Amino acid sequence: MVQPRAGVPGLNRKQQLLKRHRRNKRVALLLGLLVLVAVGVLVAWWLPLVLALLGWVAHEAWFADHLFYSPAQDYRYRFADDSAHPVQLREGRLQLEQPLALDGSETLILQVQLKSNWLGRFLDPGIDLAGDGVEDRQAFERGVNGLRYLNLGGFGGALGEGRLAVRGRFCRLLGQPKLWVIRHPDYRQQRVMVIAPHADDAELAAYGLYSQAAQTWIVTLTAGEIEAEHYQDMGLGRAEAARLKGRLRAWDSIAVPRWAGVPEAQCVQLGYFCLQLPVMQASPADPVGSREADTADTRPFRQLNSLALPGDDGVPSWNNLLADLRALIETARPEVIVLPHPVLDPHPDHLCAQQAVVQALQGLDWQPQTLLGYANHLHDNDRWPMGDTGTGVALPPVTEGDDTWLPWSLTLDAGRQCDKAMALGMMHDLQPRPPFKRRLRRLLQRLLAGRRGSVFGENEFFRKAVRRHELLWVVKRK
Question: 448-461, pLDDT tens digit by residue?
Fold first, then answer.
């Protein structure tokens, strides 16, 4: 089980990776400009303009991904030794060496060694899986050359009968794979509380789980009011636009889970302010107002709640947040709490949300049996989960550390994927069109790199989140 790593502040690491990435791009741009000037002087004045345009197109199509590790690095995962089962890849089919009883609920992880061919440096390489009339494709980094981990969720029957076909696309499989079979209780049969730092985090990470759970609570920590330029374009001032956006997202956090059958009384919006959780945590007793909404009162964003909570005095402090969480946990008595992963997800509000839950649990009479972590953001690969809407979710990049991992994969059928997409479509923050530059980049990638957008919406989260799998990890508390 994965434990939080002491001394590895996620935001700082992300900032360092971005800083290094931008520095390298500036150096490359400077060298490129020097070459273009030389070409203009020595060959023809117009040639640098043509080369610069072609270089920009190539960058947008093939080199614009934020990938902060080498595609030739191995992923480093460790699983419990007793979960390993010997398999062989024979004539393109995965064969178990010993009989294995599978009921379809297991999380099946297949380690493979991949090597990209030359096309796989320009088109996303991946693995095609097929068995019992079901097909899937799990994509990886262009130029991949190392250990990767496939998610075989939904293929248990085909695997058990030796009918699971495995084939590389723009890459080759080297050597023999390794299989891990990880068993979990059915968390859908338990009381589940999803902790969402912002409205839409619960839907992105765990709509499939919470829509099927025996009982579900959705607790959203912040109003998500910042970055309200879309509403400023309507003629509102900066603070007014932020307050409107916060009210809309507060409504979303209460209303959208009703689409999945969650009672309104079990959807709670705490109304703290976006990107201010780290500041609150640093001074637990002090109120910390919004960056953009010109307010330090959480009450306008909590008014849809059915429950009375300790923080209803409107003071945005860390102590109030902890008191709110303790009251909710004692009321709901969740057996499973779903929260941001402490290692994988570097967003500062997500890190603080996880830490707040762990701190709130200290000394409580009620303790959940399981903490499940999710990652809606990554440190080192902004495109993960790679691949298209509706396809499977392979394990994310982990290139350091020696943690033992305990993933849990939930397979979603087409109907539930569609319902999840509709829930995301109701979220106001995913509705505005992406900037023109981003839309142009996607057009070039579709034409030149073979990438497809999502049929459900233009926001990138429709591609990332509406997938065949939801992937969560058991997190061990210290």
Answer: 999 999 999 999 99
